[in-house]
Amino acid sequence: MATYEGTWAYRDRFHESFARTYFRPFGDLALSSIGVGTYLGDPTDEADSAYREAIVAALESGINVLDTAINYRHQRSERVVGAAIGDSEIDRENVFLATKGGFLPFDGERPDDPSRYIYREFVEPGIVDREDLAAGQHCIAPEFIDDQLDRSLSNLGVDRVDLYYVHNPETQLQARSRADVYDGLEATFELLERRVEDDDIGAYGVATWDAFRVGDEGSHLSLPEVIDRAERAAEAVGHGSSHFEAIQLPFNVYMADAFTAAVHDGRSALEIAHEADVDVFTSASLMQGKLAREMPDRVEAELDGETRAQRAINFARSAPAVTSALVGMGSPDHVEENVAAGTYEPMGASAFDAIFE
Hints:
Structural class: alpha/beta
Strand order of the largest sheet: 3-4-5-6-7-8-9-10
Order of helices and strands: HEEEHEHEHHEHEHEHHEHHEHH
Largest sheet: 8 strands, parallel, barrel
CATH superfamily: NADP-dependent oxidoreductase domain
Low-confidence stretches: none
Number of helices: 13
Strand content: 5-15%
Helix content: 25-40%
Distance between the termini: 42 Å
Radius of gyration: 19 Å
CATH architecture: Alpha-Beta Barrel
Shape: globular
CATH class: Alpha Beta
């Protein structure tokens, strides 16, 4: 697990190579403000090999935040992350490791008959109740998340993950009411509070795509309500305060809703997170490579970095409440450029605010 001593020793080893605000606090831990994302890529041995090499290079260059999920590349991403940590000269105590559960994962490859696979592997053994499924592939019931966390620990080859996300809970809105989704989250948060107590996870949160960026329809979930449900869950298991400590959401030049959309009682998701002392990890920081090719001139002119990709990463790192901007690094060719973004300071608060005026 990531420790105070381990992450600060990592910071002390690398911080002189980076700009002043590159390392940021997560509780008492020191985290790099650029992290490795592992969503993209084909479920192949070749992609596994490239990821493994890239993650080792990132860890040994100043990035100590790794983000994955059990369904990414059909469980291959988790397994590669675990293998790369073992390969690296960097100790596990130096590394902040996050994963997610919610989507029913395949195992290594997409089966010929996905519905039959889901029935055989999840429904028939009683891991998932049909009534808890949304979109035929998503579940946040406590029993399922409990099982998935155990599988993730096995895939990663670790005793504990530092942050565990309930993955895209807004998917449940396709099958049930918003009130029922909040109730389901609260029940699962109780389970995760107990897994914190058992030292299987350090903290938990939710990783979302639309939930915290859109208005009161469709995929919207209220961040204040989600935080409140976590507090209720903590109280139910006898904890003084919740271990709900982070959210993940898309944030980039073209998808800045988390800063601009006042959809949570008249405030944005980032404003709520800042007020509630909830850390933010950004996904889609390069918008799957689009921002390495194009960016609005007015925004780009305000950002430091030698390449457009570096400037895009620094935009995400400039937003309030952001602890780390996640960037896909499925190839070692990308690691050096992405790491070097951290040698530049992100925008100050006034310059960042001015972009949206």
